[in-house]
Design goal:
Elements (H helix, E strand, L loop, with lengths): L31 H13 L10 E3 L9 E5 L15 E6 H5 L6 E5 L15 E5 L9 E6 L2 E10 L2 E5 L8 E2 L6 E11 L3
Antiparallel strand pairs: 1-4, 2-3, 4-5, 5-10, 6-7, 6-10, 7-8, 8-9
């Protein structure tokens, strides 16, 4: 008995074609849910343009821990004290400076609007996205799609970003403006 419908192409069968080619990405099974959640957050977030003057520096994902000696005595900025070279212990700068590794990134500052907060042009900021921004924190925020670093003000229903330089205006929000806090600045790294 002949079966005329066996074999060959069938309408609607097989992988659906899309306008763009797709690829398979392998991830550790334990990270699958976190990666899906992260991608969904990125899709939901508004597009942010990084200004040409601001450089985002990726934190290395799997850098080997490095430790450095920590002296047991502090150094005097006034009169010198007898030198002691006793090493208290070794420290890992990742542990000392970074609280939430997966949520931390570095930014290089361009501009002078935060000089009274000790943030100067060329400084590098350590920014933690896992910390909830509170009144008076220094934050990196996206305002109408552009990043800026300012002091976060939120009191009595008023939300604004305050410059720490009298030559720069504060950013007060109007209904049509869009602001998203990217993260809280936890450290400032300076060159000397």
């Amino acid at each position: 008995m002949k079966q005329p419908n066996w074999g060959g192409q069938r309408a609607g069968a097989g992988r659906k074609r899309t306008a763009e080619p797709t690829v398979t990405v392998r991830v550790p099974a334990s990270s699958k849910e976190a990666i899906i959640q992260w991608v969904q957050q990125l899709k939901a977030a508004p597009a942010v343009r990084t200004p040409v003057w601001m450089k985002v520096i990726q934190l290395a994902q799997h850098s080997a821990p490095q430790s450095f000696p920590r002296m047991s005595h502090s150094v005097r900025a006034g009169f010198p004290s007898p030198a002691d070279d006793y090493v208290e212990k070794r420290i890992d700068l990742n542990e000392e400076l970074i609280q939430h590794r997966e949520a931390t990134f570095f930014l290089r500052v361009r501009g002078h609007s935060m000089i009274n907060a000790g943030i100067d042009d060329g400084d590098e900021l350590i920014v933690d996205r896992a910390i909830t921004p509170e009144h008076n924190h220094i934050v990196v925020a996206a305002v109408d799609g552009e990043l800026t670093v300012k002091r976060f003000y939120r009191r009595n229903g008023v939300v604004k970003l305050i410059a720490e330089n009298p030559h720069y205006p504060d950013i007060e929000f109007k209904n049509e403006q869009e602001m998203m806090i990217w993260g809280v600045v936890t450290r400032v790294i300076k060159s000397v």
